[in-house]
Design goal:
5-stranded mixed sheet, 288 residues, Dihydrodipicolinate Reductase, domain 2, single chain
């Protein structure tokens, strides 16, 4: 504990890591002890220094030398995450993974957020998973989906190098999580990075095929699910719901609210907001 708050570190100083560090800094329950990147001269670490954060270069090695920490957020990349977990697990830290590594216990706050309280290794799937699964899980309680398709579109400027390198893992990890949370036999995930100017907000379109759809309850349950997400990601909004014979389409838009990232970077905002929420709940559970 530091200053009565849980000591946390952010591993990775890319777009996600720096926004997450700022969100942690604003938390009353969490103390940002360290931001660890790889390149002291890199833009991310230089920005972290300008923001007044304690930083170190050298990645996981420097983080371990600077610890221990109660919670570590891994915002680096999926290829390195297995090594990070292997080395961090012996320290007793809770590791919250924001990479699409498909390791650890998969958690979506409004669906199974309580599981984060009892596991040391937590996976947040992907930004597309955090935006789509709350709605899809709710729909699966009211119909029997046979096929689910999720198409995410984000601004190119909101996707850093690690995100681009991990697009294949992003797709497979999100598809696996959708199948696990909905029981659907087949799920397809697609990702678009748009270079358009002005940059578009983060949009996710969900299509569910099922033979037992009933229009009336579906509109209301989607609205309730969206309201639950907005308790920690205020920029989350359902922009349309269309129910046809055997098919429901839901369009979701996420904008970043507050902080330094632009409003179009809702993909960063929603996964980081989920990470901070789970860390705060983990802290509260420890005190109880």
């Amino acid at each position: 504990m530091a200053d009565g708050r849980t000591s946390v570190a952010v591993l990775g100083a890319g777009l996600i890591g720096i926004d997450l560090a700022e969100k942690v800094q604003r938390s009353r329950a969490l103390h940002l002890s360290l931001v660890s990147g790889r390149d002291r001269e890199g833009l991310g670490l230089r920005r972290a220094v300008e923001m007044g954060f304690t930083t170190t270069a050298g990645g996981i090695d420097s983080l371990l030398e600077s610890g221990p920490f109660d919670i570590v957020f891994d915002t680096s990349n999926a290829d390195d995450h297995a090594e990070h977990w292997s080395r961090l697990r012996q320290t007793g830290a809770t590791l919250i993974d924001l990479t699409p590594a498909q390791l650890g216990t998969v958690v979506v706050p409004t669906v199974n957020g309580d599981q984060a309280l009892t596991h040391q290794h937590i996976s947040l799937v992907s930004c597309g998973g955090q935006a789509s699964i709350p709605i899809l899980h709710t729909l699966a309680q009211h119909c029997t989906p046979q096929y689910i398709e999720v198409i995410s579109t984000g601004a190119s400027a909101s996707a850093g190098r690690a995100t681009r390198l991990n697009l294949d893992q992003y797709i497979t990890t999100t598809q696996a999580a959708i199948r696990a949370f909905t029981g659907v036999p087949e799920a397809k995930v697609m990702v678009n990075l748009s270079p358009a100017r002005p940059a578009p907000p983060f949009r996710v379109v969900l299509t569910v095929l099922a033979t037992d759809l009933r229009p009336h309850p579906l509109h209301s349950v989607v609205a309730v699910a969206a309201e639950s997400v907005r308790t920690y990601a205020p920029g989350f909004a359902v922009t349309s719901v269309a129910v046809d014979d055997g098919r429901i389409s839901v369009a979701v838009e996420v904008t970043a609210e507050g902080g330094r990232i632009p409003r179009y970077a809702g993909n960063l905002d929603i996964i980081n907001a989920a990470a901070v929420l789970l860390a705060e709940q983990h802290t509260a559970a420890r005190f109880r």
